């Protein structure tokens, strides 16, 4: 565990650390993603927070985080015939994911919806309320709203409900399967 702390670009946190040095604050798949990429390891900070305050609105108020830099990672299921594609979508907390139009059309699906919580947590190996685009199953598509990609720094889940990651929005576009989608959110 790393004792080196750093100052995050926003928020009121007791401390922030390079996420690669705090595997106790991230899901195992996130630890692996950070270990596999020096670019990620250098760019991603983690903050330890109260898991009871992990929901976006409460979190932003408690830790003085502007909602416009908070991002949500949502797992979706797109169905076409008998085939279901699981994917992750990242949008700013001030917007809503356009599942019924943009996501459905992107996958050429008959139907697209939010994945059930138990499926999302089982498939990602992450906790509900902490799902993050870092460390997702490698075959999954990762759709990122253009507004997230252009945000200087965003706050997103760590894979665990008790902590959050802070990283440049553009860094998310370098993740496996990442694709920037204009108007992914409304």
Automatic annotation (TrEMBL):
Domain YbaK/aminoacyl-tRNA synthetase-associated: 51-173
Highest taxon above the source species: Bacteria
CDD domains associated with the record: PA2301
Alphabetical list of Gene3D superfamilies matching this protein: YbaK/aminoacyl-tRNA synthetase-associated domain
Alphabetized Pfam families for the sequence: tRNA_edit
InterPro entries: YbaK/aa-tRNA-synt-asso_dom_sf, YbaK/aa-tRNA-synth-assoc-dom
Protein name: YbaK/EbsC family protein
Organism: Streptomyces durbertensis
